[in-house]
Amino acid sequence: MSDKDDIETPVVTEAAPILEDENCEPAKNSGSLDLSAKPESKSEPVVSTRKRPEFKHSSDLETSEVLPVQASEAAGKEAVSKDVPQTGWGYWGSWGKSLLSSASATVATVGQGISNVIERAETSLGIPSPSDISTEVQYAAGETNAKESENSSPVSGPFGVFSTISTAVQSTGKSVISGGLDALEFIGKKTMDVIAEGDPGFKRTKGLMNRTSTLSQVLREVKEKEELWTSNEVTIETDKKTHYGLLFDEFQGLSHLEALEMLSRESEIKVKSILNSLSGEELETLKLELEQLKEAFSLAEFCEEEEEETKGDEDFTKEITELFSQLHVSSKPEKLARARNTAYEWISTSLAKPLEKKEEGEKQLEAEEAEQISNSSIEDIHAFAIRSLAELTACSIELFHKIAALVLHGRKQEVSAIERSRALSQMTVLLCKELSSLSKEFTTCLTTAGASNSASYIQDAFQLLLPVLEISLIENKTELPEA
Amino acid sequence: MEAIWLYQFRLIVIGDSTVGKSCLIRRFTEGRFAQVSDPTVGVDFFSRLVEIEPGKRIKLQIWDTAGQERFRSITRAYYRNSVGGLLLFDITNRRSFQNVHEWLEETKVHVQPYQIVFVLVGHKCDLDTQRQVTRHEAEKLAAAYGMKYIETSARDAINVEKAFTDLTRDIYELVKRGDITIQEGWEGVKSGFVPNVVHSSEEVVKSERRCLC
């Protein structure tokens, strides 16, 4: 036990800068108030308009709570893989299953590269013991191979449980190994949240939004964990390049999401107060119309779409531009299209599927090109893939944020909220597909985590637009009574 | 090491439409001048690290607001979570200078219970021949509100760096003195991560191994 004492010291200093600052502030009790409020709020159902709590404290709390244990956990990978099963293996197991069934498609296509993929998945997700997992992968792959044939997309399935958890897992994974129980607890809570919803099969991502914390808050939390981890691992600076959350923030994805949430919340409050002020027939008519809007928001079939061949640059740009014009907002999706096309250019020039030994002859590889892309560039591909997904996702969120701003404050347009909702819904599908096919381009060296996260972020952002469209519908009604 | 910073400050940039807010920010964050740009929709985001003392970095999260009146209700919502602000006017546009009062009044109402450290920025100072606002009167106005005044040009890269870093330093001093504190539920100032007290897990592992021996 004496060794624990020795190890504990550095861990304490780790948290010191944050705690120090907080001790300085006079209004300290307000902080602790919130701390006690936090756990109970977790179990509360939907309160999406609730003022966002500060989460820094929660992570501090977790850290200080579990400090003694954490010290031993922090001792190293070996310690973790041995100790974890007792405390949290149930969690690992449950998400592992869904992870694996979704990963199995990847595994199937890659075939021989199985250990490669596992290793890659292991480094990205921070799965504690590669050997444990690989055994499970083989089981899972065997089980699901028949059902999930190659044409099932590796990213189409896991929107529900897996994506929510992998958000946490992917980013906290490293700190599970190095940081210990606090991260495990963090993942555990997220896992429990999802399990508590009791619907592991659900395809659409209600997951992140319908809980007490807002999406951007969850993501910020995750990013801060990543940052903490990154600053801990000062020696492995390059790994920052592959941290989805950090990159997503670097492309201002978090900020746009936060701004979108603000608009969404505001609209929601307005809608509610208007509904409260109405009665009788007026109320019923409005409710009916709002119901139609809601339908448009649930129409989008995000997954299980038939596979499409990768579209050309023009197609995507054309399609997104067309959908955008249906929205009648004075803005263009140029930035998004540019980011998307840059990614594909990069793929076609420098990647061209070098590691895959696929039977399908699509995009045949020149021998010299293959040599050019040596093993040393695998890291680059991985980094670029994560970066592209993060950028594209951030651009998509930015687009949704701008749409919200323009719907609310743009000049009056000859378009109904319903029409806009339908276009938005289609746009969401298009963007998710695009991300999915982009990530497929990177499949050989990527886990599916990035893409499924991206897709769920976009879908959540899309859902945030509902109140915005609702209020715009109401305002249009009141401004054009004759129409 | 770029991820390591002492604090994060959220700054807001406000002022009339077309005074050059986005251009100033882009010059500061991207180091280039964009001649043509569409009017900002709602709000845009930029970030940059600033080294205020050797080894002490501050991450600036800059909220670039739309100057257009129609977005005012959106941009208002952002004052509250900012610790600092650049209030811009165009020295060749008298009207934008006259509106400075209005901007300050508006922020005062919406920032509560917090406060924002503002700097008054006379922008487009490269266009001195078209000047409609003298330096003297701008300085007087700034002083009346307890602000600093600085003249900048995004096109010629004059004082752009200084405008942001001076403001950052001033805020940093206030934070150091405890006049501004990190608060629950407020995004204006956040603390970052300090590298030198951090021990990597590798070291921890090593030290444990030594103990076992």
Automatic annotation (TrEMBL), chain A:
UniProt keyword list: Phosphoprotein
Region Disordered: start-end pairs: 1-64
Biased composition (Basic and acidic residues): 51-60
UniProt xrefs under Pfam families: DUF719
Family statement: Belongs to the FAM114 family.
Protein name, UniProt field: Family with sequence similarity 114 member A2
